[in-house]
Amino acid sequence: MAPCRGSRGNRAVNTTELLSRRSRGVEDAGTLMRHNMKVLRSILLQDNRSFIKVWSKTSKSSIMYENGKIYFENYQNCYSCVHSEPQVLYKLPKRSKVEKFEDALLCQSPLDKTLASPSDHKASLLTLTANNWLYRLSAVTGEELQRVYLSSNQKFRYLGWEVSQETFYVKSVQNKETPLERRAGITHNTVMHLAIFHVFPLQIVGIVEINKKYMTEKLKLGEQSSLLGDNKVGEAPFGIPVNIQITDCPPVLFEVSCSNNGVQIGGYPWHYIYTPPHKTHKGTHHICSLKDNTMASNGIQNMSCSSLESDGIFFHPDDSGRIIHIGPTTINVLKILGELNSGLPSKVVEDFSMMTLRNNSPTSQVTVTSSGRTVKRRFHQLDDDPDQETFRMVEYEDELDLLAVVVTNGEEGEGRAHIRLHDNQNGQLQRTIDLLEPWDETYRHELFFDKDTIVHIEQKNSSFCCHVYKLEANKKIK
């Protein structure tokens, strides 16, 4: 078998050698994993490999993808993307309206802990039902592993991570006064409730009441609590009591006035990105030090584009501290230069940029008809015009260290899209992948690039559609 050469190193990586080492076992599992990903990246970028569309499925409800699994019908049906085309992993029985899943979180099994129960080590799906039950289901079979009743007094609806794969919260709906109560001068001090849990194993920290105007008792699931009249915590009909009360307003750690409540924090040293709430700053992104609010040198980024959709900017998900700034024709990857304890302001510089392959010659504002009449345009073509090649979104594949950039281009009135794979370190174009289905910019789109799998989810009015592409070897033509 021929050696595979990684794009970021000069030393050849022999596939047979790596497979042999894996079968025998090696001490440095992290090194072996990195070698395996280099081999996969090398294979993926070969000319004799292509991403082939292998599967499509529509649904009347939202479709979700996470960690190699596609969820349909409010997480009741699960398909695995491990095989050459998605296969059913499990289908749960239909649930009534009061028992339907409102939200879900996928929990990965911890590798650094020894837990009391074997089921605690299983990857699981946390689901919240409309009638306030929290279920822990097996991510592989859908089997119920654990259930907790939250409360009969509050309506919980949302799940979210406080610390990813460690601590999560269950948030109630916001308590608002009705128009009749407002006219009568009746107000509710309680705004909402948060139930906070540890995972692996599932343990309650407590329920916090967010009030307009400390921990009173430590709780444990399945044990008695005086707050419930010595009834057990997490069992129906009592659920979990409110045991944390905030009596004073917490100190403000950070405050900034911004447009659309949009602030992002990241980089090294710590910086934040925001747009000031003034018309003169519309379309600009300001990068400032979190330590003292000092504006970075070259810290105002502005694409100066004329488009229906505004440009996007965010900290790079690879933890490099870089910034990705996406416009319709340009993607800039920026880095922050600065020392942690330096008195000098940091500086924002370009690491690399990517451009669309469109004709940049200006469109004539005057045209001549067949009869010889001169017609002057009353509008300018937008930078994100569907007929022009336009950047739409960027996804990062962390294990292959590749950027997947979605580019659209109208052909004969029908929108088409392709994916450009760029090296994450220098932005060099590695290969291009065509998407077979039309891309309508008026619809909502999501794209997931997960090693040898590409998943495209689109929302068409009231329906959803999922398209799956897999990496395959090109068939030889006889």
Automatic annotation (TrEMBL):
Record-level GO cellular component terms: Cul4-RING E3 ubiquitin ligase complex
One Gene Ontology term from the biological process aspect of the record: protein ubiquitination
Pfam families per UniProt: DCAF17
Coiled coil start-end: none
InterPro entries attached to this UniProt entry: DCAF17
Lineage top rank: taxon: Eukaryota
Name of the protein described by the UniProt record: Putative DDB1-and CUL4-associated factor 17 isoform 2
Source species of the chain: Scophthalmus maximus
